[in-house]
Design goal:
Elements: H1 3-6, H2 8-35, H3 41-71, H4 84-111, H5 116-140, H6 153-179, H7 186-219, H8 225-230, H9 238-249, E1 251-255, E2 279-288, E3 297-307
Helix pairs in contact: 2-3, 3-4, 4-5, 4-6, 4-9, 5-6, 6-7, 7-9
């Protein structure tokens, strides 16, 4: 490959792909605010914060490629220099990851019964990624050329490693919690299966991009191919967040008449554990009618079958 094909080419491709994903993020935010206006203000603030850092990140990388290919057109020496915006974007990428991963850590805390053993490892990975990204940004701002980045290559590798490990850990823990929440009822199991898919898909893109960025920076150290994938690491999935929030605070009411025959056995063996996340509840209706009476008496009995 020619020098530009291995350097500015991957950067340009990364900016274009990131722009496409930014458009998706904007449409997701619009969808969120039009569909869920009753959400708590804290959740709305989180969505705005994620979109804001995502927007700043997109502006920074767009400025970077414009500076290299337009402002410094015809100046080959400039292609070796570090643009300040291509360095600062690392920090805002880290902010986006911090907001999104912290939210899912809170979901793990709630769904997992507030067990520190589940949350602390995730928080350590999230904090580690943000700390390393901050250190990388501070050190890189004092450097002048891309050749100088070899001195902080370890920090760059660590950022991608922490990002991939954090997303994978969140997906694995959430799927494990949800899998253990199966009740034997087909409708509740269907809901849990969907939530497991959401948990995996939420961090799937960022995990793949972080792994590819890590692989390419090690296998192709003299190119900027890794930057293509790094630009996509912080792209969030806002609507999957909504589905998991519903699961952590909502209730699923299942009617007995809609149950499959195989799902009605051993109902008494389920225990009630108040204060946890997903509640599976059976609503039963009792009706009685006596000879000679026109009135019909009915009552409802709602029993919590399992709360997970």
């Amino acid at each position: 490959m020619a020098p530009l094909d291995a350097t500015m080419g991957p950067v340009l491709i990364g900016v274009i792909l990131a722009g496409v994903m930014y458009g998706v993020s904007c449409s997701q935010m619009y969808y969120y605010f039009t569909r869920y206006p009753q959400d708590p203000w804290t959740v709305k603030l989180l969505v705005v914060a994620v979109w804001t850092t995502d927007s700043i990140h997109q502006a920074l990388i767009s400025h970077s490629i414009y500076w290299y290919l337009v402002t410094q057109y015809g100046n080959p020496v400039a292609l070796t220099q570090l643009s300040k915006t291509i360095i600062v974007e690392v920090l805002f990428n880290a902010f986006t990851g911090l907001f999104v991963q912290s939210f899912f850590a809170a979901r793990i805390w709630k769904l997992g019964g507030k067990r520190l053993v589940l949350v602390v490892p995730v928080l350590m990975l999230v904090a580690g990624e943000f700390a390393v990204a901050t250190a990388y940004t501070i050190k890189a701002l004092s450097l002048n050329t891309f050749f100088d980045l070899v001195h902080i290559k370890g920090l760059s590798i660590s950022i991608n490693a922490f990002a991939a490990a954090g997303d994978v850990s969140i997906a694995v823990i959430l799927c494990t919690i949800l899998h253990k929440s199966r009740t034997g009822f087909s409708r509740s199991n269907t809901l849990i299966n969907k939530l497991m898919v959401f948990a995996v898909n939420t961090g799937l893109l960022t995990s793949i991009c972080a792994c590819l960025s890590l692989i390419t920076i090690l296998s192709l150290p003299n190119t900027f191919v890794y930057i293509t994938f790094f630009f996509l690491v912080g792209r969030p999935t806002l609507n999957a967040r909504k589905s998991l929030r519903d699961a952590s605070s909502g209730e699923l009411s299942v009617s007995l008449r809609e149950m499959q025959p195989t799902a009605t056995a051993n109902i008494s063996t389920y225990s009630h554990r108040p204060g946890d996340g997903i509640t599976i509840r059976i609503d039963t209706t009792k009706e009685s009618k006596h000879d000679g009476e026109d009135s019909q008496y009915g009552g409802s009995d709602k029993r919590a079958v399992e709360e997970v």
